[in-house]
């Protein structure tokens, strides 16, 4: 009688290998003492940052701030093989990337809830034996832990808590098979599928993509087109039924489309490498927090990943050294990190750190008649002490300008040191949505100027117009400053 072979149990957490100390640490009895994970290894590549189109100087220091780092969890194992590129993308974008074997999560040694974004990389999970992403999706949907919960249950809670999920290639296939994309019904029931390319062959080529301008996904904010490689055999998106197709289009969930040489969406091969419905290369869910795509943005992080980089660099020596794919990662990291805290004044007024609060601030703010709530209660906990301190210690220019703006002297009511979203503005007329800022010398600093520009952009997106005057102009030419403010008020109110 033949002895039954002892096959490895795929549900057992991986044991450490002598050449790979990254996995869990066990004692002599095999009990796990320390759940393991793989961290990103810089290897032998240069640690110099890539130069963007806006930065071509080699001596510029990277900007830092005291914000909480963005934490990205990247799953690997069972045939996934693009985890290192995925982690490198997050590292370049300024996040903390952690790679773990899927079993570490399934066995409860690592919690997805300790991270801001969960990532499913590309590869060939379970060898695509039953179709790309099918086995892994079923494992996440049906395998229960000791509490009787599946990882899909945890992922749904993770998304509901405002966190993000991203899947690339095989990871996109997993999200589709799980029903997390497009998830029109909200019941994580598969509504579309990904099947064999219309070409009948494995496609490994560069493609151009266009972002759906109606998409609400923060991954794609500010991006129009990008060029990235594809490498898949089952990337053809099939949408079940006219109603599902119409709903996807109506909600702009078809966030990425394959385009031809002149930027028009196309179903013509090889510009569209797989024949996908709606020429679709990527999907989001209705919240925009779940995002998946077939092409590989993590494979184009540097200009030098592109086969045509040499000719392009010769034609344009100032060409950005960043690859198009890095934009997606920079976007989501910036979105999760949120806006920078309000900048301190020259006197460092309002230097209270984010997250600290004075008891009763929210209640006092909501009941005080002289205030209008233009931020959230949570944000006011941080901004309130800054605003009060700024009112107590105005600069000379702020005090002088306030004397001219208060009590509706210009025919409109202004408020000073008022909280709007995540910022405190010097003066604002809420009825006209006009903000007036008094800038000291600190605002001539390059880093502060860049911050001011971003802050102004956010306020403009909220519908406000921003006027900026230097302290010196306010002190030396108050009449001219007031004339400009009054002119804008008249124009807005006309």
What can you see in these coordinates?
This protein folds into two domains: 25-43 and 67-337, Rossmann fold; 361-493, Endonuclease, Chain A, CATH 3.40.960. Strand 17 (434-439), helix 12 and strand 18 (465-470) form a beta-alpha-beta unit. Helix content is 29%, strand content 18%. Helix 3 packs across helix 5. By secondary structure, the protein is an alpha/beta fold.
Topology overview:
Layout: E1 25-26, E2 32-34, E3 38-39, E4 71-76, H1 83-92, E5 96-101, H2 102-106, E6 117-120, H3 134-142, H4 151-160, E7 164-168, H5 170-178, E8 192-195, E9 203-211, E10 225-232, E11 236-239, H6 242-250, E12 256-259, E13 280-284, E14 290-293, H7 309-315, H8 326-337, H9 361-367, H10 377-392, H11 396-405, E15 415-420, E16 423-429, E17 434-439, H12 446-461, E18 465-470, H13 471-476, H14 478-493
Parallel strand pairs: 4-5, 4-6, 6-7, 7-14, 17-18
Antiparallel strand pairs: 1-2, 3-5, 8-11, 9-10, 9-12, 12-13, 13-14, 15-16, 16-17
Helix pairs in contact: 3-5
Number of domains: 2
Look up the CATH topology of the largest domain: Rossmann fold
Q: Give the strand line-up of the largest sheet.
A: 3-5-4-6-7-14-13-12-9-10
> How far apart, in Å, are the first and last alpha carbons?
96 Å
Class from secondary-structure proportions: alpha/beta
The stretches of 5 or more residues where confidence is low (pLDDT under 50) are 15-23, 33-47, 56-66, 343-371
Overall pLDDT level = 83
CATH-defined architecture of the largest domain: 3-Layer(aba) Sandwich
Principal-axis shape equals: elongated
Cα gyration radius (Å): 27 Å
Please tally the β strands and state the result.
Answer: 18
The number of helical elements comes to: 14
| CATH class placement of the largest domain | Alpha Beta
Spell out the CATH superfamily of the largest domain.
Class I glutamine amidotransferase (GATase) domain
What can be said about the biggest beta sheet? 10 strands, mixed
The portion of residues assigned to helices is: 25-40%
